[in-house]
């Protein structure tokens, strides 16, 4: 890694992100005591109500990364516009500082997601996910887990008193776990292909998929992807008739792309339904997209159902 200056700089950025996450983990642990709960009374650029912890997480990430000479631009879910950081920087850091924040009030796992790309100018921020130099996420659950890739292998670290410690190297997604994860309350908005696929999952061993499926929905993408890395399955947040005008629910640059790189590097699949997730050309830093990822076989099966939707 040291021989490639772009990757070496990306590793230094990862170190800052890991430090920010460790600080945030500490804040989350005692947030209700510190009065950091409820909503902040403000909305972000996506029109979503911000929580005090969304704002605090964003502040921690920006503060930790501000001094890094490699970061030319930061893009955050909580910031309307890209933030110019180091003059002469060569990288962009794109992040969702606190994902799944609707789960905060019930003490369910939340997370941070990040992507590191080569970027000198603001225009460079709008590149497909295939250019990512590194990507990762942190899940703040019973343990604080960091999942990280530089595009070759995927590693899992867990936060201890002395920092993040490697727990599992070269994670590979198991192929044979029939488990799907989708917000079924949105069924009436789904396209025909998604409806058909989930119908056949529910039909289990009596249907064309020939296997009994289990279902999970945490409402925090970080927890869903951590589960898929650990035991396989498929996660779906497809664009539907309600979210189609915005492109979908999840954001391309700092949710879909980093998760896509992690899952694909671990041997899985990541698609919009029609396109490989990492091939989507972005048009806006807060662009939303249809996201389906998981074990390669199950993602391939899903694509077979929606390939003709022609969205
Ligand atoms: P957020 O970034 O505003 O927290 O939203 C992202 C989250 C994902 O973690 C999760 O997969 C999805 O939104 C949950 O959506 P829903 O509210 O439909 O359950
Ligand atoms: Mg999010």
Describe the structure.
With 311 residues, the chain is of the alpha+beta class. The chain folds into 2 domains: 5-171, Fructose-1,6-Bisphosphatase, Chain A, domain 1, CATH 3.30.540.10; 179-309, 3-Layer(aba) Sandwich (D-Maltodextrin-Binding Protein, domain 2). Helices cover 28% and strands 23% of the residues. The chain has 6 helices and 15 strands. It has helices spanning 5-29, 52-65, 192-203, 221-231, 252-265, 296-306; strands at residues 71-76, 83-84, 91-99, 110-118, 134-140, 144-149, 154-160, 163-168, 179-181, 214-215, 234-237, 250-251, 269-271, 288-289, 291-294. An 8-stranded mixed beta sheet has the order 2-1-3-4-5-6-7-8, sandwiched between helices. A 5-stranded mixed beta sheet has the order 10-9-11-15-13, sandwiched between helices. A two-stranded antiparallel ribbon has the order 12-14. A hairpin with a 4-residue loop joins strand 6 (144-149) and strand 7. Helix 1 runs antiparallel to helix 2 and helix 3 packs across helix 6 (296-306). It is globular, with a radius of gyration of 19 Å. The termini are far apart. 46% of the residues are buried. The model has no long low-confidence stretch (mean pLDDT 95). 2,5-anhydro-1,6-di-O-phosphono-D-mannitol (AHM) binds next to strand 3. It is an enzyme of class 3 (hydrolase). GO terms for molecular function: fructose 1,6-bisphosphate 1-phosphatase activity; magnesium ion binding. It holds the Pfam family FBPase. Belongs to the FBPase class 1 family. Homotetramer.
